[in-house]
Structure formats: C-alpha cells, structure tokens
C-alpha cells in the first residue's frame, strides 16, 4: 500500500510539475505575443523628393536608432544633393544670388525642438538645428548668429551656390523686367526680351520627414532653401515650430511644404496634430489644414478666378498607430512612405480638382 501511495505521489507530483511548466510556457508565449502586439510598427513619411532619405531613415530605425537620428540622416542626403534645387547645397538663391537655408527638428520623447533660419554657407542646416536643440537654451537662431553658432560647433563653411543654380538665378534676373539692364541671350531681331519666364517665376521646394521608430517614439525634420529669389532674410514656415512641422509623442507628427507664408499664417502643422488628437485620421487632418488655408485667404491676389487659394500647399502626417496621410490644395499630388518593407508613393487627398 505504501508503495502504491508513493507511486501515486510521484505521478501526481510529476503531473503537477508538467502542468506548471506548461503553464509557464503558455504564460511566456502570451507575454511574447502581447509584446509583439504592443511593439511599434515603424513608419516614415516624406515629401515626394525623399525616396533615398526614407530608405536611409528606415535602415537606421530597423537598427534600433531613435527617430530623430533617422530623419536627420535621411534628409542630409537631400541637403547634400546638388541636383535638388530646393534644399541645401545647390538650393536656389535669394534675389541677390545668395543661398540662405532654413531647417527645424523636433524630438517627440523629450518634447524639445531646435531650428535655424536664413543661415548661409552651411550645407546641413538640419544638423545645426539639432545642435541648437541639444546645446542651447534657445529654440531658434537666425542669420549671422546661426552661422557663428555653427562655426563654433565645428561646421565648415562652403559655397552653396552651384553652377546649375547660378544659371537658373541668372535666367530669372535677365528675364525679370524689360526696364532694367539685365538681358538674356538674344539676337538683334528679338523684340520681347527681359520678360520673366513662368518656369522661373517662383520655385519653392522643401523636404519634410516624420518617423515612428521601433520604440514607438516620433520625431520630425523640415529643411529647405526656401522661396527662390526671395528678399534676403525672408523666412518661410519650415524653421518655425508649429508651422513647418510639429510633433507630439502621444499623438502624431506633421509637416508641410509649399507656400510658407500660408502655413505661417495658419500654424498648419500644429493644427494637424491637434485634429489628430481629436480623433481625425492623418488624411482628414491634412485636408482640414488645406481647408483652413483656403478659407482664411482674403487677399484677391492670392485667389484664382473662382476665389480659391491659387498657390500650392502640401501636408504630411503620421499618428501614433502608424497610420499615414497627406493632402494638397489641388489634385495630382503625392507623398512617400516607408512602411518597413519598401518606399511607396501614395496619392494625396485634395481639396480641389
């Protein structure tokens, strides 16, 4: 009898141990499953000129880097590209033929930001903006002060005006007016010279990028050479926190390109984030920003024959869930995303055909 009881005890103990072990395994599997469900799905969004930038950013995000590291490294590729005449090196100059750059960064986890505006001779203003965020008690530095700050932190000065950009500037200047003394190439038979070509009337371009990293944190950057042939010292929306970009780590991130004055007047990016906070999707929030710009435009010179805002504005946004969206004032626009698999071009929503 004693032997039987002992066998039963050993058997019962073994079964109990197996049950505990099985339970532990199941618990571990459940925890792993829960972790997978809560792990952030990385995503990055950019304006249409950011394909290579997105690839670089996502590569770094997959390596576990912070989103701020990824987006800045991404846009540095565009800043360094002389063929992109809207950003960094090779950007189109102001009316005096001088390249002036603007950039801003915002870091979701720390809720900090930094920016520079009207900085000359520094190819990567986004990097300087980050140093402003991390090494000063300020948010925005401009002009000569921004340049001195950059030099103090080891940034090398260089001529940012490429031959290609200089040629475009000269064509603009030569065709700006029939009343001045600048003339384009012409023959003795030409009559209508010195009139501005529509192509060079007003070129603006920017790159914005927002990203959600593997830790579920958001960050963003916007960098630009601004409106071509602008009055020296003109600053658009790009380096202004809340206008050219905004990020709330609990909600989402947004940025803009296009007519900077419109986005400045409407604080478009912070509005997009606030609309997402209220439950709007990224696309809905971007469309509301377009609607706000259009409805608040009162100047007839900025309206078409139907009273609609006639200039271009584009918005890009992602939320904490990894959802994305973009919107333009008019149809035909698009934006880029990298969802961890590949760069994809997405048709933007629009306010008007």
Describe it.
The protein has helices at residues 2-38, 51-62, 67-79, 125-135, 143-152, 163-174, 260-266, 268-277, 282-296, and strands at 43-46, 101-107, 112-119, 140-142, 206-212, 218-224, 245-248, 252-258, 313-319, 324-330, 334-338, 343-347, 349-352. It is α+β, with helices and mostly antiparallel strands and 353 residues long. The chain folds into 2 domains: 1-38; 41-161 and 203-352, Glutamine Phosphoribosylpyrophosphate, subunit 1, domain 1 (4-Layer Sandwich), CATH 3.60.20. An 8-stranded mixed sheet has the order 4-3-2-6-5-1-11-12. A 5-stranded mixed sheet has the order 7-8-9-10-13, covered by helices on one side. The longest helix has 37 residues, at 2-38.
Residue fraction in strands: 15-25%
Biggest beta-sheet profile: 8 strands, mixed
**Secondary-structure element order, as H and E?**
HEHHEEHEHHEEEEHHHEEEEE
Please compute the radius of gyration using only Cα atoms.
26 Å
Average pLDDT value? 88
Q: List the total number of helices.
A: 9
Q: List how many beta strands DSSP finds.
A: 13
CATH architecture of the largest domain: 4-Layer Sandwich
In which order are the strands of the major sheet placed? 4-3-2-6-5-1-11-12
Structural class from helices and strands? Answer: alpha+beta
CATH topology of the largest domain: the name is Glutamine Phosphoribosylpyrophosphate, subunit 1, domain 1
Q: Please give the domain count.
A: 2
Judging from the principal axes of the Cα atoms, what is the shape? globular
CATH class of the largest domain: Alpha Beta
Helix content: 25-40%
Q: What is the CA-CA span between the terminal residues?
A: 91 Å
Classified in CATH, the superfamily of the largest domain is (Glycosyl)asparaginase
Instruction: Catalogue the unreliable spans.
Output: 1-38, 196-201
């Amino acid at each position: 009898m004693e032997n039987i009881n002992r066998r039963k005890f050993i058997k019962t103990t073994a079964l109990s141990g197996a049950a505990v072990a099985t339970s532990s395994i199941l618990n571990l599997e459940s925890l792993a499953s829960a972790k997978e469900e809560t792990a952030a799905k990385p995503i990055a969004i950019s304006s249409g000129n950011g394909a290579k930038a997105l690839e670089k950013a996502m590569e770094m995000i997959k390596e576990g880097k912070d989103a701020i590291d990824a987006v800045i490294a991404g846009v540095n590729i565009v800043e360094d590209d002389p063929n992109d005449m809207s950003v960094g090196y090779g950007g189109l100059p102001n009316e005096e033929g001088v390249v002036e750059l603007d950039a801003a960064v915002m870091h979701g986890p720390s809720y900090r930001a930094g920016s520079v505006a009207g900085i000359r001779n520094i190819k990567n203003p986004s990097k300087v903006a980050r140093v402003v965020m991390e090494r000063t008690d300020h948010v925005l530095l401009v002009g000569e002060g921004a340049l001195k700050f950059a030099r103090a932190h080891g940034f090398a000065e260089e001529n940012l005006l490429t031959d290609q950009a200089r040629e475009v500037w000269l064509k603009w200047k030569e065709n700006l007016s029939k009343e001045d003394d600048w003339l384009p190439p012409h023959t003795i038979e030409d009559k209508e010279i010195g009139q501005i070509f529509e192509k060079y009337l007003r070129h603006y371009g920017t790159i914005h990028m927002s990203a959600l990293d593997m830790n579920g944190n958001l960050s963003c950057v916007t960098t630009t050479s601004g409106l071509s042939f602008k009055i020296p010292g003109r600053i658009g929306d790009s380096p202004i926190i809340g206008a050219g970009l905004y990020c709330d780590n609990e909600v989402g991130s947004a940025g803009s390109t296009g007519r900077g004055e419109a986005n400045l007047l409407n604080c478009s990016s912070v509005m997009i984030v606030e609309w997402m906070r209220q439950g709007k999707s990224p696309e809905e929030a971007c469309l509301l920003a377009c609607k706000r710009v259009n409805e608040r435009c009162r100047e007839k010179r900025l309206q078409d024959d139907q009273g609609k805002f006639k200039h271009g504005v584009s918005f890009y946004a992602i939320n904490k869930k990894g959802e994305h969206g973009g919107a333009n004032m008019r149809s035909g626009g698009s934006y880029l995303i990298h969802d961890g698999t590949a760069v994809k071009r997405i048709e933007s929503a629009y306010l008007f055909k």
